[in-house]
Design a protein that fits this description.
The protein is mostly helical and about 230 residues long. The chain is built from ten helices and two strands; from the N terminus they run αααααααββααα. The protein has one domain (about 5-185): Hypothetical protein af1432 (Orthogonal Bundle). About 55% of the residues lie in helices and about 5% in strands. It has a two-stranded antiparallel sheet. Strand 1 (about 160-165) and strand 2 form a beta hairpin. Helix 3 (about 40-55) packs across helix 8.
Length: about 230
């Protein structure tokens, strides 16, 4: 199933194009705050969307995603990592405090990586008009983006909600994004030439992430359609 194609003849198409362009322009500025991050940006978003296309095949047709849910989900796929580009004035001080508490090195870059899902959510709310989202829509997209890692999806925040007369399954959408993001494991996100340049001083955690990608040729997704809800 091609989720973006579902929106081609809908009111969401032009709005999604704007979100895609907005996200792409942010990553083109090349201000990732950690030189050891594996590759993010438009190509990663497209890979996540490809994974989503495959995962939704397993959803029972009686419970298939609505056009509104698809719009929120694909918008979140393009926006979920923009927090990687955002730094705050007190990042250095906060990182030093955490380093002292943990009694091990912890940098500003580590802090941004650990918080990037929350920073993405904050960015979405603060720039909702630029993203052509109203305050209710931006809240849904914020939750889905924040839910792509770490966040507990069983809380009340992630219960189903109504947007107008549309039933939106925020928890399901966040879970789909989380799975699709985790499944984007491929050597193409960790080019050998770049790794050779960086590996000398690369922290252990970043080494692990690069090696995980470097030694994975790709991931296949095979789903079985559900007969239940």
């Amino acid at each position: 199933m091609n989720l973006e194609q579902v929106l081609l003849e809908t009111e969401y198409k032009s709005r999604l194009d704007g979100i895609k362009e907005h996200s792409t322009s942010l990553f083109k500025k090349d201000v990732l705050h950690h030189k050891y991050y594996t590759i993010h940006g438009k190509d990663h978003s497209l890979a996540v969307i490809s994974n989503l296309d495959n995962l939704v095949k397993g959803i029972n047709q009686n419970n298939k995603l609505t056009e509104t849910e698809i719009f929120y989900l694909i918008a979140s796929a393009y926006l979920h990592d923009v927090g990687m580009l955002i730094s705050y004035p007190d990042d250095e001080d906060n990182a030093n405090t955490i380093s002292t508490q943990k009694k091990k090195p912890y940098t500003k870059e580590d802090l941004i990586r650990d918080e990037h899902h929350l920073r993405s959510g904050k960015y979405i709310v603060e720039h909702e008009s630029d993203l052509t989202l109203d305050h209710v829509e931006s809240e849904c997209v914020r939750l889905i983006c924040e839910g792509h890692r770490v966040v507990d999806l069983t809380t009340e925040n992630y219960k189903d909600r109504f947007v107008g007369d549309e039933h939106v399954r925020v928890r399901l959408l966040a879970a789909l994004l989380r799975f699709s993001d985790e499944l984007d494991i491929t050597y193409q996100r960790a080019p050998k030439g770049l790794r050779d340049i960086l590996k000398e001083d690369m922290p252990d955690y970043s080494q692990l992430q690069w090696l995980k990608h470097y030694y994975t040729s790709g991931v296949g997704i095979s789903v079985q359609e559900s007969n239940g809800n």
